[in-house]
Inverse folding.
């Protein structure tokens, strides 16, 4: 899976600090958004989702913020751990359609 | 997700060869998908199937075909492989019956395909 991340922006964060990963989505009609985590050599793994009628949703150590005005999505990871090192990408979808639009991702590196 | 398996995990082949990638799932989901992932690009949908008798083209279906042999199996074929089909291929599933979570997709571990 390393070759997938060759051209990705990288965010380096000290272990224990909070991480913020951003995503600009493309379709103003999108009403459902997902964040995925992809570790090297593995398939994408669902982290958290949010619908367009919300602007914030919290999970375990993660928070997703949605700003529909500027079509922006962010993923906040609290107390970042080495196991959080991975590529993170967002996806958007419109209700009633099958199609997801996936972002290219950001590589998160956690420094010890 | 261990409930979604893909074979082979790695494959190197030559231009013009026929290749089949297989996907099996034990999640009991009705919907299955094939995606490809290239460096610097987001996942792109090749084909999807909402049921055994339902096959639909995605955004990049040219050069690919699929077969939904059973609810649990969805295979992707490259009839005559070409170098620009070199990529990571992912199978995914989702369950249309999950209330409020019918959009969640579960991905397999991927197949790295190299066409020389």
């Amino acid at each position: 899976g390393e070759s997938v991340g060759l051209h990705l922006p990288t965010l380096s964060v000290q272990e224990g600090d909070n991480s913020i990963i951003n995503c600009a989505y493309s379709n103003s009609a999108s009403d459902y958004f997902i964040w995925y985590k992809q570790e090297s050599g593995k398939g994408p793994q669902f982290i958290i989702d949010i619908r367009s009628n919300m602007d914030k949703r919290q999970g375990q150590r993660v928070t997703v913020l949605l700003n529909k005005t500027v079509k922006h999505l962010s993923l906040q990871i609290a107390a970042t751990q080495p196991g959080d090192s991975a590529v993170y990408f967002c996806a958007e979808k419109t209700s009633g359609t099958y199609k997801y639009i996936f972002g290219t991702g950001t590589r998160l590196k956690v420094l010890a | 997700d261990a409930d979604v398996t893909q074979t082979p995990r790695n494959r190197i082949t030559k231009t013009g060869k026929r290749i089949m990638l297989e996907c099996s799932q034990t999640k009991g989901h009705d919907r299955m998908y094939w995606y490809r992932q290239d460096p610097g690009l987001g996942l792109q949908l090749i084909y999807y199937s909402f049921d055994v008798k339902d096959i639909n083209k995605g955004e990049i279906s040219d050069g690919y075909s699929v077969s939904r042999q059973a609810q649990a199996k969805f295979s992707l074929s490259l009839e005559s492989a070409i170098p620009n089909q070199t990529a990571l291929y992912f199978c995914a599933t989702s369950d249309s019956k999950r209330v409020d979570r019918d959009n969640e997709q579960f991905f397999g571990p991927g197949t790295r395909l190299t066409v020389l």
In short: Residues 31 and 96 of chain A are 10 Å apart (CA to CA). The mean pLDDT of chain A is 90. Strands of chain A lie at 10-14, 19-24, 32-38, 45-51, 56-58, 62-67, 72-77, 86-93, 100-102, 106-111. DSSP finds no helices and ten strands in chain A.
